[in-house]
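ok trying this again, last paste got cut off
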Amino acid sequence: MNAPSSRKQKAVLVTGAAKRLGREIALEFARQGWDVAVHYGRSEHEANETVTEIEMMGVKSQAFQADLEDETAINKLFAAVVKQFGNLHCLVNSASIFEYDRASSNSPLNASSLQSHMQVNLTAPILLSQLMFEYQKNNVIKADDEYLPSVIQLLDQKLINLNPDYLSYTLSKAALATSVEVLATDFAPHLRVVGLAPGISLPSGDQTNDGFAKAHQMTPLGKSSTPNDVSTAAVFLAQANAITGTTLYVDGGQHLLPSSRDVMFKTN
């Protein structure tokens, strides 16, 4: 049977939704009939293009700018989103910083870089998750609600097999991964919290297309995740009422192959 037409429209806030995986996740939610709040930092043009593409699918969308290194801006972002999207049901923390450092290299970790990674990759997602919890707690779940509200934290498959590359990024994502179980316990029964860990899905930094193609094949399945794999997994988790406090690895099994270097450095 088809779903009853009386089911309430749901909305999602996707951070970093102007580009890359955040954009793909936002578009997939729209394809599945969700309204979409598109957060961006500096990419206003790309964010507006994403909104236009979403609106063409017949659902509501709006772009919201916020600097995720600014706590006041984060609070204002969430308030602005729920004012326009009173049906907010899912938060996807996709925005992140990914800059190279390694303790023993010519680009060692420094305090400024670590603080920036921690603020954007860890603190901002936690602050937004807390705001989402307070919002859902005050909007008591109704018996006829189709899905339990959720927060999805974008992680990384490399957390299973650690290597020294991208140290600040790794530390920030490792802390965020720890928060998934802690917050899931703390926020129940009002809000589910889950992790989503992609493999290598898009070229990063100065990686060539050829290098990316080679790296993408370095998994047990012969291919890692595509943007579509990740975006459809995000929608699945948003609708999976029994899943909380755990992480889904969507990486073609990449996390099963230990590596002493980040995969970007193993290809030309």
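PB: full thing came through this time. The beta strands are 11-14, 35-40, 61-65, 88-93, 150-154, 192-198, 247-250.
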